[in-house]
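Justification of computing resources. Each target in the renewal requires a structure prediction run like the one illustrated here; the chain below, 471 residues long, is used simply to show the kind of job we budget for.
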Amino acid sequence: MASPLRRLYNWLVTDWKNKKVTILGLGRSGIAAAQYLSARGANVFVSDSATADTERQAQAAEVERLGCKVELGGHSDAAIEHGTFVLTSPGIAPHSAVIQKARALGKEVISDVELAWRETKAPILAITGTNGKSTTCALLSFMLEKTGRVAPACGNIGVPILSQLDRKPDYLVVEVSSYQLDYTANFAPKIGVWLNFTPDHVDWHQGLENYKRAKQKLFANQQHSDYAVLSMDDPVVSQQITRAEIFPFSSQMNLDNMVQAAYVSNDFLAYRIRARNRIVCAVNELQILGQHNVENALAAISCCAILDVQPQEIETYIKEFKGLEHRLEYVATIDNVPYYNDSKATNPESAIKAIQSFPDKKIVLIAGGRDKATSLDEFVGAVRNHVAAVILLGEAKERFEKALREGGFNDVHVVADLEEAVDLGGKLKLGPVVLSPACASFDMFKDFENRGRVFKDIVRARLEMAPSVQG
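Resulting structure tokens:
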């Protein structure tokens, strides 16, 4: 049965014909929203603050062909005043002038995940956390679709959620960022998954407490018939209060005496539901490396158990999943030195998980980029225990070098660019070379995907120059 909030929304918005909507941002989610709403007859005005370069002009032309009005180079009063509500790119912070002005005019400001929840009858399986969202989202989608269900991975993973509604999915598996959650009002997923919580995006949220409150909005509107899948290993997540039924998971505690849970027992992934314990597979049968991916797998198992996926299907498909690009992705081996691309590690906590994924050998770590100015204490500790040498580049290199040397780690090399880092990593021959930057990419690259692909291109170019070596 639809929730009272959704029933009210469906009564108020029976169709979109001639309804006025302002969309802020001409990125993937903004274009998908323009396509979705214009196809239903809405009067759409898209506003983007970026200058009219070749790429933006092409995007603007694409949206104008849909019958939408588009402006570039700033958000005009006309654009803000146009819509009965404003659908914003998650990159625009709530304290920005354009959002403040829209709210001062009494406009509701929402994200695309909020609009999608209002528009679809498909159950939403929403996944958040500081780290691991994308892998868990992709894994859960992979497993459900292998069983024959239509369950696309979408949201912050890079596929706009509104682009998937016309597929009439059985489930929407949605990676939800704190930015998107901050702009929700009624959003209530059937299953909400919270993986972990560490400091990140503090500037955008203007404080750690605001960041935490944004994450907690995942559960704010859930009802007793919904589920909250929560990590018992995280001190913040494990204390989450919700009306929903809790399905806990842990890689550190054996939860086989609980009513329902997913856990590790004697190096096997397992879960309990309806008073039955089931073994899934051995930890070393997973194709995704690292303790953090054990946690991600347990979260996906929890969701599958709730949705009555057959035990044999869970076992088979979780072992088939090979992971995502830029997440501890194996690239090649050159002269007995393996190279891994973990460009998605845009904060120290994520880099720590990558560093700890090689327990039997020390690695050569390539780190640095645009600094997020979070504490490096735990990062330095992980480096001391698991890293043979660190190669630094980008805007953060001075702070990282200072922290490492003050922490007693001195095998630090500073380079000018990624190409020099790859070459030096191979020459050192101290272990696998792992790009796990612990920083954002925007000082030298368009985004973390661009950084990761450049890294892979450099490694593969070196591989071609050594044809006798097998990659």
